[in-house]
Design goal:
Length: 458
Amino acid sequence: MIRRMKSAIVVLCLFTALSVKGQTGTLPVLYLTTQNKRPIISKATYLPGTYYLVDGQDSNRNLGSAESPLSLEIRGRGHSSWNGAKKPYKLRLSEKKSPLGMSAHKHWALLKFNEPTVAGLELGRIMGMDWTASTQPVEVVLNGDYIGLYLLTETNRIGKNRLNIWEQPDGNEDEETIPYGWLVEVDNYLETNQITIQENSNWKMRITHHSPESLSPAQQEWLISEFTALNAAIYAEDKSHSTWEELLDVDAMARYFIIQEVMDNTDGFHGSFYLHKDQAVDARWVAGPLWDLSSGQRTKTDYTFRMKTSYAFTPHWIGELIKDEDFCCAVKSAWETFYPSDIQSWMESIDKQLLPCSAAFEADKKRWPYSNTAPLPSRLQQLKTALLANVEWFRDHLPVGETPSGYPSDHVHHTIAKVEYINPQGLTNSHPWKGINLRVTTYDDGTTETTKVVQNSR
């Protein structure tokens, strides 16, 4: 009897300790402590500190301990999100670690819990983007204070366990290698590691270069020239030649476009719009990795980049690309691999990843203000309903392009019936082979059109 009473007291003490701190213990808990418990007030300067991670369901996934914490550096991150009461953070570990089964790395982000982020990243994996960040929900205690439910997330970086491409070094002057190994972001915020060029007669384009971060004069000159050429090709009046495809991967851009539309991501094509370029003879810019995904959860009446938002933005490129039949053909091809076969598994993965966060989400609502206070299962149902409605809208509004100059006048009325890709060995597939392809587009009247395309990745 006495032994049972002691056990009950221990459980009660543990429960009381958890209640005081605020965390539920239903998810892994990340404990962070800055040196001298200094507050994190800067997005530029890292503070030294320590961390340990406790997974109450699987102790094999623990990292460090209260008695032996591991070292890291931490700073703020984000733009508009940094202005909120609940802050996002950037973590730089002293040694590479694999938290909660994710790939080993030093660089991580703590993002504010956001259901569309998880849904959108999962969609990126399903759609076959080159690389998509993994994320795991955690509860976070900072300097002894429970700060709620976060997403511990891989960051967009070039590296073996991230975007695995050759990386352009800082300050490179070698003209032969300068055109390769880039990770850039078409941005809507002013940054120091950024160039600004004229996109068209109406607006400019900001391009933040993440790799390399520091440019030599030769690198800067090349980057300006490269995107100037891209803009000129995309905005060319004659859409029959599609010379932009020599610089930009059409199939990856088609997948990226579908993701923005299905998510109804109002930030798509004007902010957090990443592009990368590997090292290869036929290397082109590839859309992605994905980042900072949201969902309007509204009734779609047009393509997302055309619909009104509460803020002004400039949707780069996409308004011109959907006039091009090659792009529209690639969108149709990518869509047919996704719809309807992958819809159910996508919906199930959203529930699988997020429903276990329900208790922690309730604790998070007590810690921070929420405009939508519905329980997490209800919020997930609302999100999935909105996403499925977006899927059906897009299915009925696939872009068809405009009539290229020099085509017969009745060509615009033709509907694409089938698209096939033929490699140099004569093999045929509904998806492009890596390398050189002949894309054969068959229309509903039996006519065909053949175009040479080059695919960087598969």
